[in-house]
């Protein structure tokens, strides 16, 4: 078991999704507890990789490929669990996108990766997302969080619009609303009444986890 | 370039090779970048922020050319690559302007290409950046234009509100805000007594093609000696909206088209080496797909959201040198500072980027303060220092410039993570006289002396 766990860790650390899949299959075939592989290998390894990214010891391409390796392995490890009641719960569901009028999505894509590796199920709506679409998707998937990215001062007003729509529809308390992006600030968060603001992708994942913990108390 | 050439670009956007965006980012661009960095042995050295190695500059240029031949530009609207042959790239670089004119009368300024360690001072562009409140918009632009060394000004600040409404992109109010953005900016130059000074960036409130095109009306006095910046999208991407702007202004030929490139250090291009190659490739993209006459680039640090981190200063320097040695393109390095106005750190950041740009063969663009993130945090004093430093650094040897820049950066580097926010324009200037406060003048004077003590001769 230890050799396979080491091999799984190496595959993620060396950014090898195919190798990660292969080792995950071997773990399943050897009837090793898949939850143990997820909890003891994949989660801490991705946390370390996230920290390296945060310190800029690695960059976005490496982060994305490592996350792919983790997700590919997780998907295989989860297969045997689908028939049982042991299926691990996600931390929560997040509807994520770049707001209306804004084509920029690198920051949003990093947030997606960081949230996924933190255990959230993320529904990425892409960029230039009309405000109502965030709410429709959140309703459809029974989301916990709506996360709104804006890179331009001229588009951050759409973050406010999403909150106004939620308020007008009587759904404001149904969702945790997080905002981020280059021109946004804590003052803007306060002005528009969002629940959280993060300067970095790692920060967004941490704030999301804190809010979920609070919500489920 | 006539608009018909851009029609050919759009044709390629509709007929070029199809690929998924993710494949473009990772399988095509990233893999090629890794190969090029290794093949050309391109390495970032944190002790040398202004390199003196000509072969490194040439390697970055050759790598960027090879990269762009492989990737072309990815069109998000059609999911296709707009690709070019090497002779087409060479021809476009050859035909790009080596000289353009900003402004008129006594404020006419000729932008020509600069050489490394050039004895000719850089043009000092004055940067746009954060949102500005409607009631002080003209006054902020006045504070830039009244600086004697400012060669162009910018209307590149989005209006925070217009008639009490937030001008969100894609809404009718965006068009109104763009119009008033320009009206207020022109008012600012008149208030400074420089009504004919050139704009290198006319409007910051416009994002949509409709807003860009709505600027082109005689009563707004848009002239062929003003510029309109069109952005490439990170990394090496565009879309129909950007191409529409380029096509329209190429056809009408009544304003200079400039390119603005904001590559992300730490993003899809990876570290400093990959980002330098991609930054240069953005310049090729600007010439080939937008028909730009000049360009402006702040390489942005993914973590600190500024262009004045050590890695991004290195990128600016080596890209300026690579362009200067291998093309006659007209470009300016831009300082986006982490710290806000009226702080020692902000002035030091501006100084570091100005020296690097001026010595490396670029023009300089100062300064977007406080990451362009906080409203009303931009003033003419940071521009003033940037211009004075750019002139003082003119003619310096790269080794001497590197010595200065590394010393300056060491003074603020550890504060990049938590930079001081500084003050707003309203706190920094007397709003009646548009004179800087005593505090602001004191900080300016202190930092200038500090720079002089390091060996910069004003």
Key traits:
heterodimer; A: 217 residues; alpha/beta; 5-stranded parallel sheet; 9 helices; elongated; B: alpha/beta; 6-stranded parallel sheet; 15 helices; globular
Distance between the termini of chain A: 36 Å
Assembly type: heterodimer
Distance between the termini of chain B: 41 Å
Shape of chain A: elongated
**Elements of chain B, N to C (H/E):** HHHEEHEEEHEHEHEEHEEHEEHEHEHHHH
Radius of gyration of chain A equals 18 Å
Order of helices and strands of chain A: HHHHEHEHEHEHEH
Secondary-structure class of chain B: alpha/beta
Describe, in plain words, how this protein is organized in 3D:
The complex is a heterodimer of chains A (217) and B (458). Chain A is α/β, with parallel strands linked by helices. Chain A has 9 helices and 5 strands. The two termini of chain A are 36 Å apart. Chain B is of the alpha/beta class. Chain B has a 6-stranded parallel β-sheet with strand order 5-15-14-12-10-8. In chain B, helix 10 runs parallel beside helix 11 (344-359) and helix 11 packs antiparallel against helix 13. Chain B is globular. The interface between A and B is medium-sized, with 28 and 40 residues.
């Amino acid at each position: 078991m230890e050799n396979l766990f080491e091999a799984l860790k190496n595959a993620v650390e060396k950014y090898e999704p195919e190798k990660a899949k292969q080792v995950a299959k071997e773990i399943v075939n050897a009837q090793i507890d898949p939850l143990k592989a997820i909890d003891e290998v994949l989660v801490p390894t991705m946390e370390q990789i996230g920290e390296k990214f945060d310190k800029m010891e690695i960059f976005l391409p490496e982060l994305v490929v490592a996350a792919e390796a983790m997700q590919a392995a997780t998907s295989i490890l989860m297969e045997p669990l689908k028939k049982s009641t042991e299926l691990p719960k996600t931390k929560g569901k997040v509807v994520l996108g770049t707001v209306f009028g804004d084509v920029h999505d690198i920051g949003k894509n990093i947030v997606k990766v960081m949230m996924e590796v933190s255990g959230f199920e993320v529904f990425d709506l892409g960029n230039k997302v009309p405000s109502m679409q965030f709410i429709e998707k959140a309703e459809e998937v029974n989301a916990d969080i709506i996360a709104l990215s804006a890179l331009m001062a001229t588009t951050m007003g759409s973050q406010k619009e999403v909150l106004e729509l939620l308020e007008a529809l009587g759904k404001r308390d149904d969702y945790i609303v997080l905002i981020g992006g280059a021109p946004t600030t804590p003052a803007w968060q306060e002005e528009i009444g969002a629940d959280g603001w993060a300067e970095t992708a790692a920060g967004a994942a941490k704030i999301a986890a804190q809010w979920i913990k609070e919500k489920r108390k | 370039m006539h608009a018909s050439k851009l029609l050919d670009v759009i044709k390629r956007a509709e007929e070029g090779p199809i690929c998924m965006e993710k494949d473009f980012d990772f399988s095509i661009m990233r893999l090629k970048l890794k190969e090029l960095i290794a093949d050309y042995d391109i390495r970032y050295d944190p002790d040398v922020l202004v390199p003196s190695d000509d072969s490194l500059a040439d390697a970055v240029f050759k790598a960027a050319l090879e990269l762009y031949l492989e990737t072309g530009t990815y069109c998000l609207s059609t999911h296709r690559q707009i690709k070019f042959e090497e002779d087409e790239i060479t021809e476009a670089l050859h035909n790009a302007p080596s000289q353009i004119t900003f402004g008129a009368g006594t404020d006419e300024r000729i932008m020509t290409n600069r050489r490394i360690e050039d004895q000719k001072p850089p043009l000092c562009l004055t940067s746009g950046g954060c949102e500005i409140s409607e009631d002080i918009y003209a006054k902020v632009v006045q504070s830039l234009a009244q600086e004697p060394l400012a060669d162009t000004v910018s209307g590149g600040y989005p209006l925070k509100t217009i008639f009490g409404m937030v001008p969100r992109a894609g809404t009718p109010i965006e068009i109104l805000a763009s119009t008033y953005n320009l009206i207020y900016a022109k008012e600012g130059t008149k208030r400074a007594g420089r009504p004919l000074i050139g704009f290198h960036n006319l409007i910051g409130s416009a994002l949509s093609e409709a807003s860009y095109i709505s600027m082109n009306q005689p009563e707004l006095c848009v002239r062929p000696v003003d510029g309109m910046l069109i952005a490439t999208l990170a990394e090496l991407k565009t879309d129909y909206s950007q191409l529409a702007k380029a096509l329209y202004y190429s056809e009408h030929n009544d304003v200079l088209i400039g390119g603005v490139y904001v590559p992300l250090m730490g993003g899809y291009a990876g570290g400093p080496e990959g980002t330098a190659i991609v930054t240069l490739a953005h310049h090729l993209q600007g010439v080939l797909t937008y028909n730009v006459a000049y360009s402006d680039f702040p390489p942005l640090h993914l973590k600190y959201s500024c262009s004045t981190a050590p890695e991004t200063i290195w990128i600016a320097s080596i890209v300026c040198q690579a362009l200067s040695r291998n093309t006659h393109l007209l470009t300016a390095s831009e300082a986006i500072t982490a710290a806000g106005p009226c702080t020692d750190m902000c002035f030091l950041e501006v100084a570091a980027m100005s020296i690097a740009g001026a010595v490396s063969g670029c023009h300089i663009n100062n300064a977007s303060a406080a990451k362009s993130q906080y409203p009303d945090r931009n003033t003419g004093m940071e521009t003033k220092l940037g211009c004075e430093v750019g002139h003082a650094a003119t003619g310096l040897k790269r080794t001497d410039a590197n010595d200065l820049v590394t010393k300056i950066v060491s003074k603020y580097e550890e504060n990049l993570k938590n930079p001081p926010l500084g003050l707003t324009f309203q706190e920094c200037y007397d709003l009646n006289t548009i004179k800087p406060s005593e505090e602001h003048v004191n900080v300016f004077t202190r930092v200038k002396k500090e720079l002089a003590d390091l060996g910069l001769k004003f």
